[in-house]
Amino acid sequence: MTTHRLAIYDMDRTVTFRGTYTGFLIHVARRMAPWRLALFPGVILLMLAYVLKLISRQRLKEMNQALMIGHNVERARLMPHVESYADAVLASNLRAGAVAQIAQDRADGYRLVLATASYRLYVEPIARRLGFDTVIATDHLSQDLRYVRAKIAGENCYDTGKLRMIKAWMAAEAIDRAHAHIRAYSDHVSDAPMLEFADTPFAANPHTPLAKLAAQRGWTRVDWA
Asked: Hydrolase: present as a keyword of the record (predicted)?
């Protein structure tokens, strides 16, 4: 018997047109310390180092944040810019088709979960505006309650790590997988573990590797404007 209905969405390029992390860094730097924009070429170099496998994806995110925002940022100073960034995402970086599907899943009685590698810090304001019930995301390790550190707590919510975090959340919520029906949506092949875990997986605006995998597995493809 199904007792839980979950609709789990990736965020970047699934719900949004574009990735949100670089935009977040630029948005906050421009408002808090415009001089840091001169350091942006360093972000490009760090991305190259990641592509060359010189640094991990997790370390890439930490170093980019330290470069563009700072190692330690007072939360009270940061949050107004986090909120204004969420407004900017909703104004110009949302797929109308994704928004419509979110509304349909809500109407169908599904609990809405946003599961993303992006930072919880700015994902939660976006999720709140979109009416999501739960956020599963990459967390910051805070030095204390007043500061946000450029350091990840636990896992980067990505690939198999994302699925582990989804399962851990379900266990904490006493959601038995055998009694749950899960819809899952993603654009990227790194979310294959999450899509395989779902009862009804959707390749949403998939890039080529996921489009090929979805065709092989018989997963439904959706292309949202």
From this structure: yes
